[in-house]
Amino acid sequence: MFKVLAKDGNAKRGEFTTVHGKIQTPVFMNVGTAAAIKGAVAAEDLKTIKTQVELSNTYHLHVRPGDKVVKKLGGLHKFMNWDRPILTDSGGFQVFSLAGLRKIKEEGVYFNSHVDGRKIFMGPEESMQIQSNLASTIAMAFDECPSSVASRQYIENSVARTTRWLERCKKEMNRLNGLEDTINKNQLLFGINQGGIYDDIRVEQAKAIADMDLDGYAVGGLAVGESHEEMYRIIEKVEPHLPKDKPIYLMGVGTPANILEAVERGVDFFDCVYPSRNGRHGHVYTNAGKLNLFNAKYETDSRPIEEGCECPACKYHSRAYIRHLLKAKEMLGMRLCVLHNLYFYNTMMEEIRDAIEAGNYAEYKAKKLEGFKENDKK
């Protein structure tokens, strides 16, 4: 399913074949938590901004509208009218983010819904069942994402449990993919490496899950409070122990600079809410760094967000107009900023793939990082 087409150092250019189409890697997955990109972005917009993979959230879709509702409507692809790959996370991150609303046990996690307070139980089998109902292309294994400041003993126990949960996930997915009423009988499973910032725990668990012959492998539990240097170190330690013929996914990361650094260390898949979240607040990415369009200096600026950009915002609108929309709290302003940011990320991933194929990734990365600093100098 995963074929490496070119390498430049540790950076690799690949192709991942799925039932919903081929994914060119490295790839940035655009985050649509509740089956929509926040910022009034529809599925038909995603192709315009070069989206390859859309990512949705298992926990949130289970809470509403309900995964069984989505299954009745033909699965997530039909529900949101998207015919390319979809990755669903497992609900495991909510074990971390909803710390005040949950209790973790060997069988799984007991939640109180953040919407209405009702009790929810989710374990490996339940997460796989929900994701099977959603019929995503790639399902993530159910895990716990421990806090980066948790004790070593806590993280050791948590990682051991996550590994046991992964075995249960694989068994349940195999069962679900064989059922007659399963929508996507070719659903893929990615396992998740955890271990906080402890190199030895990470490496030991990476070796254990590498033997499970999964469809892909994620490095989770990063970008949750540790430094960028610690994150890069963990990737360097873990990557050699994951299978070379399977994609590596760095979960929840990150800034354009984070992505450039992680690609150099062998990562293939990325996702992050930054481009859409920042866009909704008027912060837009350019090759000369990030701009805050609320800044008064853009009030009469007739230029596009970035000269030469082919996104829907830059092709038709000025910085001044988009700033006006944002100040007037018109939804169109937010939408245009989100479209631009996602287009910027997706275009950067194209450039990364081209640079790896050309064998000049180090030069490309250095030039890109230097460009990002230009607005800081002004």
Automatic annotation (TrEMBL):
Its EC number is 2.4.2.29. This is Queuine tRNA-ribosyltransferase. It catalyses: 7-aminomethyl-7-carbaguanine + guanosine(34) in tRNA = 7-aminomethyl-7-carbaguanosine(34) in tRNA + guanine. GO terms for biological process: tRNA queuosine(34) biosynthetic process. GO terms for molecular function: metal ion binding; tRNA-guanosine(34) queuine transglycosylase activity. Catalyzes the base-exchange of a guanine (G) residue with the queuine precursor 7-aminomethyl-7-deazaguanine (PreQ1) at position 34 (anticodon wobble position) in tRNAs with GU(N) anticodons (tRNA-Asp, -Asn, -His and -Tyr). Catalysis occurs through a double-displacement mechanism. The nucleophile active site attacks the C1' of nucleotide 34 to detach the guanine base from the RNA, forming a covalent enzyme-RNA intermediate. The proton acceptor active site deprotonates the incoming PreQ1, allowing a nucleophilic attack on the C1' of the ribose to form the product. Pathway: tRNA modification; tRNA-queuosine biosynthesis. One of its GO terms (cellular component) is cytosol. Keywords: Glycosyltransferase, Metal-binding, Queuosine biosynthesis, Transferase, tRNA processing, Zinc. The active site is at D89, D271. Binds 1 zinc ion per subunit. Residues 252-258 are annotated as: RNA binding. Substrate binds at D89, S90, G91, G92, F93, D143, Q194, G221. Homodimer. Within each dimer, one monomer is responsible for RNA recognition and catalysis, while the other monomer binds to the replacement base PreQ1. Signal peptide: none annotated. It holds the Pfam family TGT. Residues 10-371 form the tRNA-guanine(15) transglycosylase-like domain. Belongs to the queuine tRNA-ribosyltransferase family. Zn(2+) binds at C309, C311, C314, H340. It is an enzyme of class 2 (transferase). Its cofactor is Zn(2+). It comes from the Bacteria.
